[in-house]
Amino acid sequence: MRLALRTATWCGGLFALLVAVAVGSATIGPVSIGYVAVAKAGLNTLGGPIFDFTVSGQTQFIVGQLRLPRIALAATVGFALAAAGTVMQGFFRNPMADPSIIGVSSGASVGAVAAIAFPALVPVGLRTAAFATALVSAFAVYAIATEDGRTPVATLLLAGVAVQTLLGAVTSYLLLESGDSLREAMYWLMGNLHAATWREVELAFPPAVLAFLVLLAFARDLNVLLLGEEDAHALGVSVERTKRLLLALASLVTAAAVAVAGVIGFVGLIVPHAMRLLVGPDHRILLPTSALAGASFLVVADAVASHGPGELPVGIVTAAVGAPFFLYLLRDREVHAL
What per-residue string of b and e applies to 83-105 under the rule 16 or more CB within 10 Å gives b? Predict the structure, then answer.
């Protein structure tokens, strides 16, 4: 009961923070809009026939069709990456793990760059290509690391590193051959939410939320896996089945996020680690709080990226913030094995 109350309190506070940063971000732009007008236009957009507040047509269009989709996509991607990062850090029992550790982001990069540079050869479109190659890469890493029905964590990690290196080489070759598409490909690889629409939100939100709910149901099993596979088995956890499920869902969540936003680093690494310092290692509270904190973090990062003197890919901002923070944790001896 105490854990449920603590989880509800933290999640309620973080959700309120997400709403606050979303409204604040929507007020900023070439056309300045007040908080009350943003709230009314946002409720009109999200509430459908329920709300019908009076705002100007210009305000309704700017908030509902330009700013809110980008904010919603940033929140969805941040939510997904932080949730996947939390699972990966618990799975590998290592705070250095992140969602891309088994090659999902590298695989998505190959598909996306190929679709940008050679659209005639990859006619399925950028997002579909990125999503498909991300999942194929994750499956390949799993297949390489699995033998006789068992998937040792150390082997999985090494296979992930090897496949990431190979896919990085393929991506580099595709960039060399991309010609006039080089700038567009590089921009995608840096991670960006430019020109986001509700369509991208519709593509990323359902798989992210559904996979998160299933992961949350396995939070207790993830806690038990922290004790080691032998102890987890002795306590009644179907270790290999649980590992397969966790990997599949974390890969699905990451692939959905990367497919619509490009490669955005450090969200799935820094946010779960920071929340672990605040709420502890119990995944029943760590997973939902990390996901909500990741959503707020990426909304803020994208606001900084998009409202500066020149718009930057949001991946540059997350790296600029995340790397110094992580170095600080290292210096402060806060990074240790789980």
Answer: bbbbbbbbbbebbebbbbbbbbb
The CATH code of the domain at 68-331 is: 1.10.3470.10
* Distance of alpha carbon 294 from alpha carbon 116, whole angstroms: 28
Domain assignments of the chain as residue spans, ordered by start: 68-331
Contact 98, 268 (CB under 8 A): yes
Residue 154: how many CB atoms within 10 A of its CB? 9
- CB proximity list for 130: less than 8 A, separation 6 or greater: 108, 109, 111, 112, 115, 255, 258, 259
Query: pLDDT tens-digit profile of 124-144?
Result: 889 999 999 999 999 999 999
Residue 223 contacts by C-beta under 8 Å, 6 or more apart in sequence?
90, 281, 282, 283, 284
Query: Which residues, in sequence order, are CB contacts of 290 under 8 Å at separation 6+?
Result: 82, 83, 85, 86, 271, 272, 275, 276
Coil, strand or helix at 88: helix
Q: How far apart are the first and last CA of the chain?
A: 25
Residue 314 CA to residue 327 CA, distance in Å, equals 20
Share of the chain above pLDDT 70, in %: 96
pLDDT for 281-333, tens place per residue? 999 999 999 999 999 999 999 999 987 667 889 999 999 988 887 787 677 65
Is there a contact between 322 and 98 (Cβ–Cβ < 8 Å)?
no
pLDDT band at 46 (very low <50, low <70, confident <90, very high): confident
8-27 pLDDT, tens digit per residue, is 999 999 999 999 999 999 99
Mean pLDDT of the chain: 90
Taking the CA atoms of the chain, what radius of gyration do you get in angstroms? 20
What is the structure's pLDDT at 271?
94
Q: Are 290 and 7 in contact (CB under 8 A)?
A: no
Count CB atoms within 10 A of the CB of residue 237: 21
For residue 96, the 8-state DSSP code is T
Q: What is the per-residue pLDDT for 328?
A: 77
Read off the amino acid at residue 293.
A
DSSP per residue over 189-208, as a string? HT---TT--HHHHHHHHHHH
